[in-house]
Amino acid sequence: MFPPLNEQLDLIRRGTAEIIPEDELAQKIERSIKTGLGLNVKLGCDPSRPDLHLGHSVVLRKLRQFQDLGHTAILIVGDFTGMIGDPSGRNKSRPSMTIEETRQNGESYFQQASKILSSSNLNIVYNSEWLGKMSFQDVIKLASKYTVARMLERDDFEKRYRSGEPISVHEFLYPLAQAMDSVAIKADIELGGTDQKFNLLVGRDIQREYGLEPQVILTMPLLVGTDGAEKMSKSLGNYIAITDSPDEIYGKTLSIPDTLIYDYFVLTTNVSPQYLSEVKSSLESGRVNPRDLKRKLAREIVTIYHDTEAAAQAEDNFDKVFVRKETPTEIEEVFLNISDGGVPLYQLLVEVGAAKSNSEARRLITQGGVTIDGNKIADANTAVTIKDPVILKVGKRKFYKIRQQQSH
User: Fold this and answer.
1) Of 62, 46, 23, nearest to 220 (Cα)?
2) How far apart are CA 264 and CA 55, in angstroms?
3) Rounded to the nearest 10 degrees, what angle do helices 290-305 and 308-318 cross at?
4) Is the CB of residue 394 less than 8 Å from the CB of residue 321?
5) Which distant-in-sequence residues (6+ apart) come within 8 Å of 366 by Cβ?
6) Which of 51, 80, 240, 407 could be 128's S-S partner, Cβ–Cβ 3.0 to 4.6 Å?
């Protein structure tokens, strides 16, 4: 039923930052092979950020690998812990959410995660099922099992304590609540980003306190965004969303710095270990143009979230626009009812959905990223009339074919 130990370990190690401790992981896998029972592999999902990008995909893809090996993936939606707000990596308390908000975001999370995870050996649970039933006596008992000194060893808590930034008592409860998730589902393994290491270690300690075999911790690197500087984040704009169109995924992937090519192959694609070795050696020797490797990388990523046909079309569209300076074959058509006097350009951007607000539209125009029929326009108030059709280009990859709506 299960692949041999070495085969499992080879796949699990790929792209992993740390396995704590690896010998315990080997023991757990050996036991599962003997008993025919899969391991419970836990991943907590943050309901405050329902929009998934390639950064989130790194740990989700590792969870999928465990599924492919025959183990059970357990996704825990932190609908209860979302009311506390995870302080990891933050220099101040994170705003809390309502149960309703966390449930709604959880639904969105699953819809997107289903592009990566298999539904066959997947359990989805909400931690309010057990945390919401704990009495105050239960909470005191749990809190007694961990010291303030240990809590202050955590990097972000220590920094805030030293700088005089306030730390609320309820924030100390977050790692303990996350640890109780591991107790409740009897987690054998817990996955997380490297920024979650402290919380995952607390889970090991608390499982011991409740008489359970401690979970093995597996941390994954934080994917650097397309800017090559910060970790991928929607708020920083350096992200590639897994729901992006093929053209967006392809174009954004080609924009990453050459230094990230190998990491992206390791963390975001399914290419073979042999191909990874070729990528590494060709980058080190300089015998391959990094642009060619990025094109292969972009095709791989588009194929994962769409298909091979979409990847080929995205590459062709990219070449048309950026290499041959042509207009893409397929452009979204928008029908608008525009008077003879025209409409201000900034308003047009909002009406077609290229900008969320007038101020964002004005910013895009003044930055020089907007053209009408190939002519750059820098004045946001320029009146645009429709001479059927008009080709509007916003930024590098957004094209709109605007037609006059026919009156009946």
Assistant:
1) 62
2) 10
3) 140
4) no
5) 378, 380
6) 80
